[in-house]
From TrEMBL:
Residue ranges annotated for the RNA polymerase sigma factor 70 region 4 type domain, each copy included: 107-158
Alphabetical list of SUPFAM superfamilies matching this protein: Sigma2 domain of RNA polymerase sigma factors, Sigma3 and sigma4 domains of RNA polymerase sigma factors
NCBIfam families, alphabetized: sigma70-ECF (TIGR02937)
Stated name of the protein: Sigma-70 family RNA polymerase sigma factor
Family matches, as Gene3D superfamilies: 1.10.1740.10, Winged helix-like DNA-binding domain superfamily/Winged helix DNA-binding domain
Domain of life where this protein originates: Bacteria
Entry annotated with the keyword RNA-binding: no
Keyword Transcription attached: yes
Organism, as annotated: Flavobacterium rhizosphaerae
Any Pfam family matching the protein: Sigma70_r2
Homology family: Belongs to the sigma-70 factor family. ECF subfamily.
Length: 164
């Protein structure tokens, strides 16, 4: 593959790796599972990158790929992942260390969000990332009105979980 494509991909991935870490945090319960999912999302992004035309923002496209990967992998009953060997030194990706010592409130929020179904998790994640309803709708493949209605319902679910 063209080195300019590789360079562009690495730059985009480095700039947006925190969003991938956040998705991993939503769909995993351990550091090892987090690392496995991060690696699998990175591989899927790399495989799909040549098809990225730039019709949408890179982050919107990456959200879609990452969420689809996370949902697909963690819906399966078996938790073993078949991964492709990926040598991060080959692509010289600088991976920021992710801080697992989150504040207590954030931990409670993640625990509450993990009780939601996969689509609701994705919706909350994008909402917390300050994505507008148009981008949320585009990423999830639903209407903007549907995204707003779903978000209001999810807020109610989270209130019940956090304040029983």
């Amino acid at each position: 593959m063209d080195t300019t494509i590789e360079k562009s991909f690495v730059e985009q991935l480095e700039e947006n790796q925190n969003l991938i870490h956040k998705i991993c945090r939503l769909y995993t319960n351990s550091e090892d599972a987090h690392k496995d999912l991060f690696q699998e999302i990175t591989i899927q992004l790399w495989k799909a990158y040549p098809k990225f035309r730039g019709d949408s923002k890179f982050t919107t496209w990456a959200y879609r790929v990452a969420l689809n990967t996370a949902i697909t992998l963690y819906r399966k009953k078996t938790r073993s992942l078949t991964t492709v060997e990926f040598d991060s030194t080959l692509h010289k990706i600088n991976q920021d260390e992710y801080d697992y010592e989150e504040e207590e409130q954030l931990k409670m929020l993640y625990q509450a969000v993990q009780q939601l179904n996969d689509i609701d998790k994705a919706l909350v994640f994008m909402y917390l990332e300050d994505k507008d309803y148009a981008e949320i709708a585009e990423t999830l493949g639903i209407s903007e009105v549907n995204a707003r209605v779903k978000m209001n319902r999810v807020k109610g679910k989270l209130k019940k979980i956090l304040n029983p």
